[in-house]
Amino acid sequence: MILGRGKVVVNSLSIAANRLAQSLTSFVLFASIARILGPYELGQYLLAFTYYFIFMSVAAQGFKTLFTRELSRHPQETPVYLVSGTLLQLLFSLTAYAMLVAVVLALPYSSDTSTVCYVLGLAIVPFSLSNVTEAIFQAQEKMHLIAASTVPVYILRVEVMIWAMKLKFGVSFGVSFLAVIFVISEFLILLIEWGLLARTVKPKWQINWDFIWQTVRTARTLVAIEGVAALSGRMQVLILSLLGGEIVVGLFGGIAQLMQPFEMLAQSVVLAVFPSLSKGVTLEKEKQRHQVESIAEMLLCVALPLLVGLYFIGGDLLIFIYRDPSFAEASAALKVVALGLVAVCFIRPLSSLLVANGLEWINLREVSVTNVLGGLFSVVLVSQYQLLGAGIAALLMNISACSQYMYAVRTRLFSFDLWRILRRPLLMSVFMLAVFLILQEIIQNFLLTAVAASLVYLLLIGVLGILAVGISAISRDQVS
């Protein structure tokens, strides 16, 4: 039992380390591109990565989920999945890359931007092939091998990219040299994972076509869900690239990067609680309701004070991180996008709650509806207001998703006590509003204001935590 818990802890930490390294290195890379090369080059790289991410998700993500599930149930089939599954992923990845090239070729991008998209898109192939090895590691509950393969490469990749930018490679080759480094790093990860896997799995060098056709039929729904979800998350960048250009894409990407720490926090919290939510299906709904309310409250305790802070120092923060005065233009859009964090506090836990109760079809419906509405919002608003319009469209998409989830949960599972969820976060945000107003009068330096406000926030969290523990102890004493 203790050994089993230890394995869960190691696997959880490995997944967390992998995601943290991926997020942090992406943030450092995006900031470095903006600082060294500029917002136009950042827009090029972000657009190319967007196309890569969308077509990679279509080619690989659905299969990875299926492979992991089936290998967990039938580990003796691992050699078959390793060889035939790899061939299947190769075929899908090459098809996805051909589709990417066709789409980019048909759109009115400049030749250098199109080249970056073509080069970076090649990473679809090694990433898709890595899906097979990583699915095997996950099924064997050896997630530490995934972290061991990816984290060092992520760190090395961003260091090499920054070194290359400082040597002014961009003057001769544009952003394409960054795309080349990215592709090489993905092939390196694939090579390392195959090397680790070869120590325990002996490949069965025979193509099982029945397995391939059956897998394709089984994975259709998962592929559709992943593809629609990827398009939904990256739609703004695509529309901005066509209606606003690479510089506007770069500015919007700078905003999106500031939202990433909170998005990662929300995702991590929900993933940690998801097993408990799933077990609660067989118990009373009151327990699930209490868990979801607690998650939403905790996330709001972070989101609302963060929102207050961004309204006061968001513009200065953008300029400080990216060291480019042109990012001041994104200040208004940042404030609008930040409002969507409130909706995210409900979207994440409610989405997982529905999946835990076997209602994942509602999630697919929500993504599809929000995609359609988001596309309409974006085309109309971006054409009129450019970057600010993209921020408004992103906010409306979050509101749409939140409304659909709240209605579905209220009608199919239970209702919420919104005042219980909101009272403490609202109290904290009002307190932080007063703190920023005071700091604005006595401190003129942006960094000192940010540090002082952060310390006050941490102190407030500590005080509320102590009070909560004390009240809980008093309640238990009264009950006993």
Radius of gyration: 23 Å
Number of domains: 3
State the end-to-end CA separation: 32 Å
Structural class: mainly alpha
Query: What are the secondary-structure elements, in order, as H or E?
Result: HHHHHHHHHHHHHHHH
Work out the helicity level.
Answer: over 70%
Q: Helix segment count?
A: 16
Unreliable residue stretches: 1-5, 469-480
| Topology, number of strands | 0
Oligomer: single chain
Portion in beta strands: under 5%
Mean pLDDT across residues: 81
> How would the global form be characterised?
globular
How would you characterize the largest beta sheet? none
Note down, in words, how this protein is organized.
The protein is mainly alpha-helical and 480 residues long. It folds into three domains: 1-218, no CATH class; 249-434, no CATH class; 435-479. 88% of the residues lie in helices and 0% in strands. The chain contains 16 helices and no strands. It has helices at residues 2-36, 39-73, 78-106, 111-121, 124-139, 143-166, 169-173, 176-197, 209-218, 220-243, 246-279, 285-322, 331-356, 360-412, 418-442, 446-479. Helix 2 (39-73) runs parallel beside helix 11 (246-279), helix 4 runs parallel beside helix 8 and helix 11 (246-279) packs parallel to helix 13. The longest helix has 53 residues, at 360-412. The chain starts with a helix and ends with a helix. The model is unreliable at 1-5 and 469-480 (pLDDT under 50).
